[in-house]
Amino acid sequence: MIPEEIKALPVVGALTGALPESIVSGKAGRGELTLEVAAEKIVAVCEFLKNEQKFVRVSTVTGVDWYPEEPRFEVVYHLHSPERNERLRLKCRLPGENPEIDSVTGVWRGANWYERETFDLFGIRFRNHPDLRRIMLPEGWVGYPLRKDYPVTGDRV
Amino acid sequence: MSDIDSPGVTAVEADPEAPEAGPRPKSLVLNMGPQHPSTHGVLRLLLELDGETIVSAQPDIGYLHTGIEKEFEVKFYQQGVTLTDRIDYLAPLSNNLCYCLAVEKLLGLEIPPRAQWTRVMLTELTRLNSHLVWLGTHAIDIGAMSVFLYCFREREEILRIFEMFSGQRMMTSYFRIGGLALEPPRGWQKPVKRFIDVFPSRVDEYEELLTNNRIWIGRTKGVGTFPLEDMLDLGVTGPMLRAAGLKCDARKAQPYSSYEKFDFEVPVRTENDVYARYLVRIEEMRQSARIIKQALEGMPDGPWTADAPHVVLPDRDKMKTQMEALIYHFKIVTEGFRVPAGEVYQAIESPRGEVGYYVVSDGTAKPYRVHVRGPSFGNLQAVPRMVAGTLIADVIASIGSMDFVLGDSDR
Fold first, then answer.
1. How many structural domains are present in chain B?
2. Distance CA B332, CA B338 (A)
């Protein structure tokens, strides 16, 4: 459910007008706007925001692991529009089993490394990514360190 | 980009034993780094060459990955400050500031003016520090040795000022959640004033050595250009954008820590080459000096930490006389302080561009997740676009103009 005061915001109004059912919920607080996007609609939403709403930059893409909750993962996108001087946070929830989402590298090429990093550290796969390899860790690394069930200390199993 | 994975120098399609010398080897893959003095850290670049022209380049990063984001999750909020120093080791205070602002936003803390102004002043000194290292090493890369020595002379003064404030030259951790770590030392104005009075004339000196220098101009003008749309698309921020004509500076656009009270300009150029980036950073140094001067002259009086005993460590004297202070101290040190559940993204303008901290709290005393958006990571992504089609001799000048720090990109 999208709260009424968020529906009234121009960005959200335009989004729900152009792409109905793409926004699952929304939250505004501390001067920041967060929209939860249906995972299968992420590319369409990003394209719309970039081309129609002037969010020409993606500041960062990352993940959050809510283990043991389900759906377990969140992919978080921070968009920025220098022209409107606004920032926007998008979120998609993914299941713990085979987390997969479409890549937004087709929208912003700059998402490339951020998605690689999220893949490397969370094990979230990005479909249609041009070069989905580990970026921080060596290629043969086992496991995804930023997952909550990955230990901070101790021997590797 | 076919055979680019093989390290070292590999001649593709070259086979001298071939009975008939077919077409000349088309491309050569040259490995640059990770131990290369001009990559300023451990960046590895794989350059595919056709003669002297670069066909493609592929940066390889991660050599400095230390798992800082994971480590945040097992430390109390206040302990995280020391980690932020180590991310961008040329601009530790910018990272301190961004992290503190993010957590303070979650806590809803009001920071007193004196602390805010001190933060602005020291962050701008950090910008000078970082730009000086950049200018010195960039000049050395291109062949101007003496600039380096002059830059480090001034940098030494800045590091002494940091030491005076925090006890540390580089890993300062001087900004804490709720204010400053220590009260600014008595008489701090004197060395800062002495430094800031002469600094603009020092910038003139650098400019005398470089701005009209024919070799410098020859090596930097028209080099490393690529369109602004590509920069925005690839995630480039900071002086690179401003040298391409976009007036984009978080200090003006979304002011934090009372930057709105200071009078300064955001330098913008439109030439979009290495030379323009040099001019932008030189002008930024002058503007930072202006800000520092204003902070020095108008420094407000008053407390240097927020009125939040559950977050800020109490005064040593109070601890010896007041029961509550002792209890708060014990609680903060042993079990930290709880931060209301929620999430924030705080972005500031570091010397290199947009530093962003995304902090997620689940209501406990340790952050649930901290993600650091380092400007170097975004900027490095544009290296292939910037150097493709240019000459190999220009690679050093081009990547030098990005001013990246590998600790910042790898975390």
1. 1
2. 10
